[in-house]
Every structure is written in structure tokens, then in C-alpha cells.
Amino acid sequence: MFNYRQLDDDRLEYVTIASTDEIRNGERLILDVAGNLIAVFNIAGRYYAIASICSHDDGPVAEGEIDGQEIECPRHGARFDLETGQALTLPAVVDIPAYPVRVEGDEIRIGLPVIS
Ligand code: FES
């Protein structure tokens, strides 16, 4: 299960990754969070966070073109749902991680699964 938006809050740790000034409408920010590349997108005021590693062949999926709520991997064109991480088209058949995002004041926070 890679859609961490479905986890209960007690299984997530929210980490501040940027301020709202840093990711304006239509922009994205790719971060190294504890060794994992995670991308946060602002699309018309809604925030999405996914892992920036394609499940097909490790391509930099978060650098791809956005179409609505979908992103296309720049390497071979697989498409993923930004909200759920679901693989929508070949050649990817495995979902990628998607994380919940909260805005508290001017802080953007993402929920990372707690490793126990
Ligand atoms: S690496 Fe993303 S589609 Fe192949």
C-alpha cells in the first residue's frame, strides 16, 4: 500500500517541508526527505506529494508534465495519479507512494509513515 493518505494520523509523522511562498500555484518542489526524493505540487491551490521515483525503471517522475491531476514520467511516459500515486498507464504497473499534505498557517507539511 503506497497511498499513505489512507493511513490514520497516528501512523503518520507530519514534517514541515516548505512555506506556501515557496510553492506557488503551478509550481513543484522536489526534496530529499530522509534519503527519499519527494515532490510537492501546488495545483490551483491544492497540494499533492508523491515520491519522485518511477515504479517502472526509477525515472524522475516528478519532473514530468502535469495534465490535470495526472503526471507523466519523462522517461517512458507512464502516467500516475498525483493524489493516490496509482499507476494509470503502461509501462508502469505498480503504484508510487503518495503522501498526505496539510497547510497550517503558511507551512506546508507532509505526512510520512512512521516506521515501527
Ligand atoms: S521510468 Fe518512468 S515510465 Fe519508465
Q: Could you explain the architecture of this structure?
A:
This protein is mainly beta and 116 residues long. It has one domain: Rieske Iron-sulfur Protein (3-layer Sandwich), CATH 2.102.10.10. The chain is 0% helix and 43% strand. The protein contains no helices and ten strands. Strands 2-3-4-8 form a four-stranded antiparallel beta sheet, with no helix packed on it. Strands 1-10-9 form a three-stranded antiparallel beta sheet, with no helix packed on it. The mean pLDDT is 95. FE2/S2 (inorganic) cluster (FES) binds next to loops.
What are the key terms here?
mainly beta, Rieske Iron-sulfur Protein, four-stranded antiparallel β-sheet, 10 strands, binds FE2/S2 (inorganic) cluster
Question: How do the strands and helices of this protein lay out in sequence?
Answer:
Layout: E1 12-19, E2 28-33, E3 36-43, E4 46-51, E5 65-67, E6 70-72, E7 79-81, E8 98-99, E9 101-104, E10 107-113
Antiparallel strand pairs: 1-10, 2-3, 3-4, 4-8, 5-6, 6-7, 9-10
